[in-house]
Amino acid sequence: MLRTIVLLTASAVLASGWATAAEYGGLLAQATPGTEAADRPSAQPLGPRGFLPQKPAEVFTLPPLRLGPPEADRVSGPRLEIKSYVFEGNTVVSSEELQRIAEPYAGRIVSASELEELRHNLTRLYIGRGYINSGAVIPEGALTNGVLRILIVEGQLREIRLKGAERLREEYVRGRLARGGAPLNANVLQENFQLLLADPLFSKMDARLLPGSEPGGAILDVDVTRARPYQFSVFANNYRPPSIGAEALGASGWVRNLTGLGDVLDANFQDSAQTKGGARYGLGWSLPVNSRGTQLQLRFDHGRSAVVEEPLKAADIKSTLDSREIGISHTIVEDLRRKFSLGLVYARRENRTTLLGEPFSFIPGEPSGYTRLNVWRLWQDYVQRLEQQVLALRSTFSFGRNNIEQSSSTPSAQPAPDFLVWLGQVQYARRVPDSGAQFLLRADVQWAHDRLLPLERMAVGGVNTVRGYRENYMVRDSGYRASVEYQHPLLGAFDERHALMLAPFFDYGSARNIGEARDRIYSAGVGLLWRWQRVSANLYAAKRFVTPPAPTQTTLQDRGIHLEIRYDAF
Question: Rounded CA gap, 455 and 398, in Å?
Answer without folding.
Answer: 12
